[in-house]
Specification:
364 residues; mainly beta; Neuraminidase; 5-stranded antiparallel sheet; 28 strands; 43% strand; globular
Length: 364
């Protein structure tokens, strides 16, 4: 059972969409390439970010991926297919969202405890955010080796004991926030979706202080009756808008935002708009032109929504293992490739059954 979508947030839509039956009927023309895959079922890649880039580089040699089945952050070289652990976290069982911070090679990572059965079942009060600094280089162990973690600095930025399940995360741009980072340069805050409490938190990356920034019950709340009906899940920031997915209403939304200097808070600056309906989205990526790539995790599909609102299936089918259990996506620096993480089809196994989690590349 899923909550009905309130009429108050339907209104005049800035973006149009096609019925899901039409989108699902379109035969995908893209064949994803597997760049890395684990060897055992039950592995779960949850989120990802572009790795540190050499000065002036436009290619994407490495990706950082979080694992939800163990509290580990991995680096994957997409040119060689080599993966290695770069950080692990104490008193936790899972990593969730990840986002780069202002300095190249520095990231924020969501960490906490949950149990995976039909889906993740979180332990409220166990959630926190760490800073992982890879600017000194990465030397670690791959899946079969036994090296060490190398030159990686890890520090806890904050615990958020009020959180029910911290999930997707995105950096809020620093412009206008007035928050000063170490060394005097401006830093932003991170926005973090709470899939149990149905809110988006903000965290000051320098002081560790946090508060609820966005709270729209109609579009963010979890289902009170359906354990799979998570509240707000993925979150992204693009050109003055915060985009977010909410599983309980099977939709993706956006809201214009601004920084309030007096309260030091990210605030809504307009009404919530509906971007897409009728699709259960875990996380997603936003292209430079405003188009979206939605990870339809229960349908084993990557769905494209153009800036004009045209919707189609980019890759995968419900029965296919191509992108089975797709969880998140990120676009390469040159805009030509989409990288997608999967859970192996844990929620809706493809034909042939669940497979190990993997990282795939899709040419755009």
């Amino acid at each position: 059972m899923h909550l009905p979508l309130p009429l108050s947030i339907l209104g005049t839509l800035a973006l149009l969409f096609l019925p899901p039956s039409i989108a699902q009927a379109i035969t995908p023309r893209i064949t994803p390439q597997t760049k890395f895959q684990y060897r055992t079922n039950g592995t779960w890649l949850e989120n990802l970010a572009l790795g540190p880039a050499p000065s002036g580089a436009t290619t994407t040699p490495t990706l950082l991926v979080t694992r939800m089945d163990v509290p580990e952050l991995w680096s994957i070289d997409v040119s060689t297919g080599r993966g290695e652990v770069v950080a692990s976290f104490p008193n936790a069982t899972a990593c969730m969202g990840i986002t780069p911070l202002g300095q190249d090679g520095v990231y924020a990572v969501v960490v906490g405890r949950l149990r995976i059965t039909d889906i993740g079942h979180p332990v409220p009060g166990s959630w926190g955010i760490y800073e992982v600094d890879l600017s000194g280089g990465v030397a670690g162990e791959d899946e079969d080796g036994d090296g060490d973690e190398g030159a990686v600095s890890v520090r806890k930025m904050a615990d958020v004991p009020e959180a029910g399940w911290l999930n997707g995360m995105a950096l809020f741009p620093s412009g206008g926030t007035g928050i000063q980072a170490r060394g005097g340069e401006k830093a932003g805050v991170v926005l973090i979706a709470d899939s149990v409490n149905g809110v988006i938190w903000q965290l000051d990356t320098q002081t560790g202080t946090y508060r609820v920034a966005l709270n729209d019950t109609a579009s963010m709340a979890a289902s009170p009756t359906d354990p799979l009906g998570l509240g707000v899940n993925g979150v992204r920031v693009w050109r003055g808008f915060v985009y977010y997915s909410t599983d309980s209403v099977q939709a993706v939304f956006r809201v214009p935002v601004r920084w309030d200097d007096s309260s030091q808070t990210v605030r809504a600056a307009g009404v919530v708009e509906t971007v897409a309906l009728g699709v259960v989205v875990d996380d997603f990526a936003v292209a430079e032109d405003g188009g979206l790539y939605l990870m339809a995790v229960a349908d084993n599909q990557v769905v494209r929504v153009t800036a004009a609102g045209e919707r189609s299936v980019l890759a995968g089918t419900r029965e296919s293992a191509q992108v089975a259990g797709c969880t998140s996506g990120v676009i390469s620096r040159d805009g030509r490739r989409l990288f997608v993480t999967t859970n192996g089809g844990h929620i809706t196994p493809p034909k042939g059954g669940e497979e190990p989690a993997k990282l795939v590349e899709i040419d755009l």
